[in-house]
């Protein structure tokens, strides 16, 4: 995928990466859901933000410190996007972990919004490999972290109500 030198990909994917940088896309989505979605939107936004924060912590604050993996070699990437890559460990993809966690946490609370979030989430995952920032396995593990965190965020309130209430 990183070797895919498509004009379409070069136009679409860099703006996706820019929007996802520092989770701007997900924060903006949460604000829009909370502002325009009533109680359902506020619940979905809160779940998404909570999951995104925990996924970022686990992927960038823990896993990247435990697994030191170099980014894919620049020679593997035939396009110019390869010059703008982070210096941190490649494993796992924090962008993907945050995107998947947000989307997977939003979906049960508001399925329509979750379906809408799935498109940019998939584009973020594709962009991370296409830009040479990550190996496909980094993205896969980031997605697994995101899914796990979303399940945890969904189960903690129910667990607390049952055992603390």
From TrEMBL:
Localization, UniProt: Cell membrane
Keyword tags: Cell membrane, Hydrolase, Membrane, Transmembrane, Transmembrane helix
InterPro entries noted in UniProt: PAP2/HPO (IPR000326), PAP2/HPO_sf (IPR036938)
Lipid bilayer topology: Multi-pass membrane protein
Domain of life the protein comes from: Bacteria
Domain spans labelled Phosphatidic acid phosphatase type 2/haloperoxidase: 47-154
Main location class: membrane
Name this protein carries in UniProt: Phosphatase PAP2 family protein
């Amino acid at each position: 995928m990183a070797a895919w030198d498509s004009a379409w990909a070069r136009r679409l994917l860099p703006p996706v990466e820019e929007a996802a940088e520092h989770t701007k896309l997900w924060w903006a989505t949460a604000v829009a859901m909370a502002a325009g979605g009533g109680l359902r939107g506020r619940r979905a936004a809160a779940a998404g933000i909570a999951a995104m924060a925990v996924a970022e912590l686990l992927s960038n604050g823990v896993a990247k410190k435990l697994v030191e993996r170099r980014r894919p070699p620049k020679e593997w990437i035939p396009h110019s996007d390869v010059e703008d890559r982070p210096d941190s460990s490649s494993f796992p993809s924090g962008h993907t972990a945050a995107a998947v966690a947000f989307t997977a946490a939003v979906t049960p609370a508001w399925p329509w919004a979750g379906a809408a979030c799935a498109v940019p989430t998939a584009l973020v995952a594709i962009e991370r490999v296409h830009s040479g920032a990550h190996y496909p396995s980094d993205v896969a593990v980031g997605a697994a972290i995101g899914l796990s965190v979303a399940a945890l965020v969904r189960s903690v309130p129910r667990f607390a109500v049952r055992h603390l209430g």
